[in-house]
Specification:
The complex is a heterodimer of chains A (282) and B (305). Chain A is mostly helical and 282 residues long. In chain A, helix 2 packs across helix 11, helix 4 packs parallel to helix 7 and helix 9 runs parallel beside helix 10. The two termini of chain A are 26 Å apart. The relative contact order of chain A is 0.16. With 305 residues, chain B is an all-alpha fold. Helices cover 77% and strands 0% of the residues of chain B. The radius of gyration of chain B is 24 Å and the shape is globular. The relative contact order of chain B is 0.14. Classes of the chains: A mainly alpha (282), B mainly alpha (305). Chains A and B meet through helix 5, helix 6, helix 9, helix 10 and helix 11 of A and helix 1, helix 5, helix 6, helix 9 and helix 10 of B.
Amino acid sequence: MKNTGILWKGLCRKPAALRGLAFILVICLGGFLAPLISPYSPGGLDEQRILEGPGWSHWMGTDGLGRDLFTRILYGARVSITVGIGTALAALLIGTLYGLISGYVGGTFDNLLMRIVDVCYGLPDLLIFILLSLVFGRNIAGILVALALVTWVRFARIARGQVLQAKEFIYVEGARAIGASHARIIARHILPNILAPILVTLTFSIPAAILAESTLSFIGLGINDPYSEWGTSWGTLAQDGWRAMRSYPHIIFFPAAAIFLTILAFNFLGNGLRDILDPKTR
Amino acid sequence: MARFLLRRLLHGLAVLWVVVTLTFILMHVTPGGPFDRERRLPPEVLANIAAKYHLDEPLLKQYARYLQAILRGDLGPSYKYIDRNVSDIVIDTLPVSALLGILALLFALAFSFPVGIGAAYYHNSWIDRWCLLFATLGISLPHFILGALLIWLFSLQLGWFQAGRWENLASVVLPTITLGAAPAAYLSYLLRSTLLETLGEDFIRTARAKGLKEIAVLLKHALNNSLIPTLTVLGPLAAALITGSFVVEYIFALPGMGRFFITAVTDRDYPLIMGVTLVYTVLLVCANLAVDLLYSFVDPRIKSR
């Protein structure tokens, strides 16, 4: 609890990071309270008002089927946020566990496990991600799993490096000397040490996942449900606008701005966190 | 030195083998086949097709056949383009992708060196602040948004460049910038921060005390020491260029390998998917090997390891 206080105090001194955090919260709230905010439904067709520009009744205009763009972007936030945070958390869980065990056990076992990570690092990850998403299905859960299977390597590397350092600390040796169990040493003495870099990696993994998901949805290989009532990916919305960009640039402008600003907000937050938690890299 | 390179080479081969095996497994556990059409084909026809492409054999035998063919440099027939081999398609489209990637890398280097050096030298000046802002923007802007923006501005509004062509110098400009912007932003940021660190070192003060010209201090003493961290990211950067290229090729409708990969995925043209993935991986492995070689030139200490 004391640490969260320090973190918050540090954040207050970073206006860019704070603004990023505020924007992320607004996007999250907007996405999950979308039915309360918007009077339209995301699939609500209106043949009378097709391809309208931004105006009073439709803030961001309407698309080729007369659907309100502002509503569609609100609902789309659900997809991006779920995929982004879900992927990062899943990758964190797999990667940190892998790195922890590998680094803690050490020796040949560690060598072998890190060889695997090295090979995974050498793969063209977006291609592997596309292939994996074919297997797991082109829906939110499938994309999330596929992305997590590509991202976990980063966490594994960082966790292992930190564990190798933390293992050598005198108090860890002390804990071992008085007979603490491995589980206790890991949980009480090693985990708190590796938390900071893991948190920073987590913050940077979220925008990376959002970027990958929206890119794939844009080129038509991502989430495949343009008529979903729960939310359509911003990448798919941008793709809709891309086809009509010559005459109706507003349809691509708003989803593209939403994607860009969300990624930017996470990156600002990540930069701020990194400066606070790791004073060495500045 | 030789041992170091041999180890890297073995590592590259391991990556290739994993990709070959992984794509093979993925393609065979994926639901739906390449010959699922709207109208169902009669079972006799399907059996004939399966026999032609050896899809009726046991998986292990297919795997062995596939490995042997790859070693001969044969990537198999395309299911979609019936009269063409995957190798032919790769030979036709790889030059376009490779040229795009090289141009983007050159653009990134040409941009980032002056900007990064300037930002570090004039620390906390306007050029430094712009460098930082540009780095964050460049990393956050997806290729497809930047590409769409450039097309909208420069070909639809201003009419300076034509999009969707690949014939002369003018048609290459926008794709190159789109693909190169993120690496350019990242490299300038990296150069700036490593140079800042080096400029604070004692040997820089010594060099200045000797009365060396500022330009010599900056370019010879400081820059040399900042090259290694820059080289480290060239490997991941090559990966970013490779995976970014197929989005850029899609947006600008360039006849490159990436665009074939995208259509191959929608068509479930397995040999083409596997072939293109393999070629991309070979490129990536070669890029990483080249970076390792460069390393040992820049930092002789690495040879002894």
